[in-house]
Amino acid sequence: MTDTVDKTPAPSVPPEQIKAIPVRHYGRWVSGVVVVALVVLIGIAFSNAKINYSVIPDYLFDQGIVAGAWTTLYISVLAMVLGVVLGVILAVMRLSSNPVTSTVSWFYIWFFRGTPVLVQLLLWYNIALVFPILNLGFYKDEMNQVMTPVLTALLGLGLNEAAYMSEIVRAGIQSVDEGQTEASHALGMTQGQTLRRVILPQAMRVIIPPTGNEFINMLKTSSLAYAVQLPELIKKATDISSTSLAVVEMYFVACIWYLFLTTIFSIVQYYIERRYARGSSRNLPPTPLQRLRKNLARWGSFRRPEVAR
């Protein structure tokens, strides 16, 4: 008699369910407690300090403070425009095959990046000691009359900014593939047309972020113009503090205005960066406004009652 082999498959035994145990991060809790404790201690210290906080709202929109903030804004914009225009020229000169223009551009960048902005402002402010008379042939006047605090701040801040902007623009130009230049020349474009129509538009995605940072930094660096008697925000705050004796309080007022200006332009920079990053292959995250509209739409659909059919 032949034995019959049972070919019925054995019942499959389900594997034991794996239970994931999260790793405990004790260091996070310790660092969090330490940071919170430091913040509380700083808050207690400032609350017990001899600062009259009720004075700050009174001077926040003072006529002199608002005028100083406006001066800070427009001198920063003018100096930044000068720095960007001159920086593009210096960057093109630096990349030129002409050794004379390349050397002059390098020397300019080396000098203005290597000396403090305050020293440059003071040199322009006291330039009448070296050149008492400004004689351009078609225009002649005393240098003290020509070199006003506004012009001093514009030259000191703008020429210094041009040295940094030239390096930013040069990095942006070099980020564009050389094949773009060769293709433009093959289409019959000149060097200037290639730079304006092909190279710079593509380099903007690299140039815009550091340029925005430079402008925000310019808003704060403009406070150094206080040394050349420009009536900007710090100068106005100091003048008011000398009569009201609220020295620290007026500096708090200036800090609030600087934070307001830098926040506004940080938001503008964010949207400009998104504008020039649209051609990149990566997917851009939604903006805060887009997320807000999405959440409001989701909340509205959740609260909307269903209509009976």
Automatic annotation (TrEMBL):
Q: Name one GO cellular component term.
A: ATP-binding cassette (ABC) transporter complex
Task: Give the chief site where it resides.
Answer: membrane
Question: What subcellular locations does the record give?
Answer: Cell membrane
Against InterPro entries, the record matches this protein to: AA_ABC_transptr_permease_3TM, ArtM/GltK/GlnP/TcyL/YhdX-like, MetI-like, MetI-like_sf
One of the GO BP terms on file: amino acid transport
- Which Pfam families does this entry report, sorted A to Z? BPD_transp_1
Please list the GO terms describing molecular function.
Answer: transmembrane transporter activity
SUPFAM superfamilies per the UniProt record, alphabetical: MetI-like (SSF161098)
Ranges for domain ABC transmembrane type-1: 69-269
Which PROSITE patterns does this chain map to? ABC_TM1
Tell me the protein family, please: Belongs to the binding-protein-dependent transport system permease family.
Name of the featured protein: Permease
What organism does the record attribute this protein to? Streptomyces fuscichromogenes
